[in-house]
Amino acid sequence: MEKEQQEINNTEEQEVKAEVNETEDKVEEQAEGANNASVADELAEMKDKYLRLYSDFENFRRRTAKERLDLIKTASEDLILALLPIIDDFERANKAMQTETDIESVKAGIDLIHAKMVKVLEGKGLKAQDTAPGADFDTELHEAITQIPVQDEKLKGKVVDTVEKGYTLNEKVIRFAKVVIGAQ
């Protein structure tokens, strides 16, 4: 979106410059055959026109910058709206936990809320990275927090344990998986 905006701005600026150059050429042509008073009037008119076009362009640039900031501020609105029902579910679960004596039903309710939240976030493009023990250590996806000695040669330089899951948002890593890797 930003590149498109820059292209629009550059195109409009080039159009304004081309129009100014064209009018200056016309003024120079007319200056050769006309008297100085009419040339001065024509030049003043063209300068006024140029200033108005430049002003319009600056106003356009300011307006689009403001719109871009507004868009950034409200970009997460749809995610927040999708999470509000989950917050309501947590509040109902919390209220039920105060009086419920059957711990299994409370656990089942929390599991349902968790599954609902994961589904909403996956719908918005969030994916958990699958970092199984024995997987190759990849610096593009993992963050090694420590190394532990391993007996098995196959586990050297491999993921031994995952301390914290990693996540991607629309194929971009937003949190690296924190892993323990095997060493000698």
Poorly predicted segments: none
Largest sheet: 3 strands, antiparallel
Query: SSE order, as H and E?
Result: HHHHEEEEEE
Structural class: alpha+beta
What is the average per-residue confidence, as pLDDT, rounded to a whole number? 84
* Strand percent estimate: 15-25%
What's the number of extended β-strand segments?
A: 6
> What is the oligomer described by this structure?
single chain
Number of domains: 3
- Helix fraction? 55-70%
Intertermini distance: 50 Å
Instruction: Give, in spatial order, the strands making up the sheet with the most strands.
Output: 1-4-5
Q: Number of helical runs? A: 4
Shape: elongated
Our Rg estimate from Cα atoms comes to: 32 Å
What would you say this structure looks like, in words?
Residues 1-40 are annotated as: Disordered. It is found in: Cytoplasm. Keywords: Chaperone, Cytoplasm, Stress response. Belongs to the GrpE family. It comes from Shiella aurantiaca. With 184 residues, the chain is α+β, with helices and mostly antiparallel strands. It has 3 domains: 2-73; 77-123; 127-183, Roll (Nucleotide Exchange Factor Grpe, Chain A, domain 2), CATH 2.30.22.10. The chain has helices at 2-33, 36-73, 77-99, 103-123, and strands at residues 126-128, 142-149, 159-164, 167-169, 172-175, 177-183. The protein has a 3-stranded antiparallel β-sheet with strand order 1-4-5. α1 (2-33) packs antiparallel against α2 (36-73) and α3 (77-99) packs antiparallel against α4. It starts with a helix and ends with a strand. The relative contact order is 0.08. The model has no long low-confidence stretch (mean pLDDT 84).
